[in-house]
Automatic annotation (TrEMBL):
It comes from Neobodo designis (Flagellated protozoan). Residues 1-14 have a biased composition (Acidic residues). Residues 15-24 have a biased composition (Polar residues). This is JmjC domain-containing protein. Residues 326-476 form the JmjC domain. Residues 1-32 are annotated as: Disordered.
Length: 476
């Protein structure tokens, strides 16, 4: 393999400019990437033998096991054709596993998910190792990144991000894409959203002399709200002051230009409990992989063009067609694309003060169209939900309202393991099916850009986007 790379990227063929410029020794920098990926892949595949053994226990999966075993063996082989062999066998395993996932709607056993991850790691290495010429480097880097992204979506392992880092510099710069701007304010049929946001019954901390610094904010928040387990909106930039994201992330075209080749998980449609959406929602909800560029083109741009008129022509509680709803929901985009962390400042000062120095435990991004819905549920962590662009309607039910939410109704659609998901369509409840829900008391809030809603652990919350929207949440 080293001889082949020497032939491809030797001194005579090394370019002199751009990201693919030569190293000081005259060799093309991409020549080192296949070996670095091979080393990383070999480490990432350390448990593949156990995965193959588990797959082999099921006769219907033996073909997958054999393909994965042959592919992983090719990764560590010194044969000149090892990359081609690895790609062929890994592609066979990938196709069979993807068909299995589509058929079952989830991974039937942990070993099947692990096998899919392994197939993507192998395909990433084989893609760059088989790069035939300097002109193909950019396409190979993009294809390999997408394989590693698919693996990351399945498991979130940091070593995959390290592997992406080996090839990121060789991804060609995309031409500027025009995608539109997520709204800084949302016009809901002429209704003043600032009035709605302040009239929902939830307290709002506003910037003042008492909250001049983040330390002041943390002290006031801890004493007045955190210790009392009371939801509150930290409004108008109290914890988002200085966030470049408040402006930069509104531009979905810029997002597609910078990161449009990256793969993300997308929920299409809406979860339905048999409420007003009916078959339009529950029968069409699905998950898929799209690049961020495809997500912008297929969902965000059309939603930006459509939603203002939809809101003016329809009542506040109406929703767009389920097929037009797309959501990158609860995704670890910061771990996948660490550069995005430059645009925000996680509320570590507040989190450390409140949880004994453990800080922020997990960050998720929520990027979607108008009309996305997260069903009523509670989390096992304290939570800040921060609105970056667009607007969201949030409905909260205190812990003492749990007896009225039917979450423990066997067969009603709740999460029977944790009892943390309410089966009721809260804005259009079926009170014949869920009669106790009529007694449940809730509070409302609308989040605008720069607002951060504190949701204490165990407090039930339902979220609906009022516009194409970008949010971040921090569990602490």
């Amino acid at each position: 393999m080293a001889d082949v790379l020497d032939d491809l990227f030797g001194d005579d063929e090394a370019p002199t400019t751009t990201a693919s410029q030569s190293n000081d020794d005259g060799a093309h920098p991409f020549r080192d990437v296949p070996q670095r990926l091979r080393d990383a892949a070999s480490e990432a595949l350390s448990s593949v033998h156990a995965t193959v053994a588990e797959l082999s226990k099921r006769p219907e999966w033996v073909r997958i096991a054999n393909a994965l075993a042959a592919a992983s063996a090719a990764v560590v082989s010194s044969d000149a054709d090892s990359a081609s062999a690895a790609a062929e066998h890994a592609a066979c395993a990938e196709a069979a596993l993807w068909e299995l996932l589509q058929e079952r709607k989830q991974w039937p056993e942990p070993c099947t998910r692990e096998a899919f991850i392994a197939s993507q790691v192998i395909l990433a290495w084989a893609t760059v190792a088989r790069c035939a010429s300097e002109a193909d480097v950019g396409a190979a880097a993009v294809a390999a990144t997408r394989h590693l992204d698919r693996a990351f979506v399945m498991c979130g392992r940091p070593e995959l991000v390290v592997m992406i880092g080996f090839i990121e510099a060789f991804v060609p710069q995309r031409e500027a894409v025009s995608g539109g701007m997520l709204p800084a304010r949302c016009d809901m049929g002429g209704v003043d959203v600032d009035t709605i946001a302040s009239a929902g019954g939830i307290a709002r901390m506003q910037p003042s002399e008492e909250t001049a610094t983040l330390g002041d904010v943390a002290a006031t928040f801890e004493a007045a709200y955190f210790r009392k387990r009371t939801p509150v909106v930290l409004a108008n930039g109290l914890i988002t002051k200085g966030w470049a994201a408040l402006e930069a992330w509104r531009d979905v075209g810029a997002l597609a230009t910078a990161h449009g080749h990256r793969i993300v998980p997308v929920e299409v449609g809406r979860h339905s409990h048999g409420g007003h959406d009916g078959a339009d929602s529950s029968s069409s909800w699905r998950e898929c992989f799209l690049t961020l560029g495809e997500f912008v083109d297929q969902f965000l741009r059309p939603s930006l063009q459509r939603f203002p008129e939809d809101l003016k022509a329809s009542p506040r509680g109406s929703l767009p067609p389920a097929a037009a709803v797309g959501y990158v929901a609860q995704h670890g985009l910061f771990e996948q694309i660490p550069k995005l962390l430059r645009d925000i400042r996680p509320p570590a000062v507040i989190a450390n003060r409140c949880n004994g120095g453990r800080g922020v435990l997990k960050m998720n991004t929520w990027l979607g169209t108008h009309g996305t819905v997260t069903p009523l549920h509670y989390d096992s962590y304290d939570n800040f939900l921060v609105q970056v662009a667009g607007a969201k309607y949030v409905r909260l039910y205190a812990v003492d309202q749990t007896p009225f939410l039917h979450a423990d109704d066997a067969g009603a659609g709740g999460n029977l393991a944790q009892r943390n998901i309410c089966p009721v369509d809260v804005e259009h409840p079926d009170l014949e099916r869920f009669p106790k829900f009529a007694e449940a008391v809730h509070t409302d809030v609308v989040l605008l850009p720069g607002d951060a809603l504190f949701i204490p652990q165990g407090v039930w919350h339902y979220v609906r986007s009022l516009a194409p929207s970008f949010s971040v949440n921090f569990w602490f």
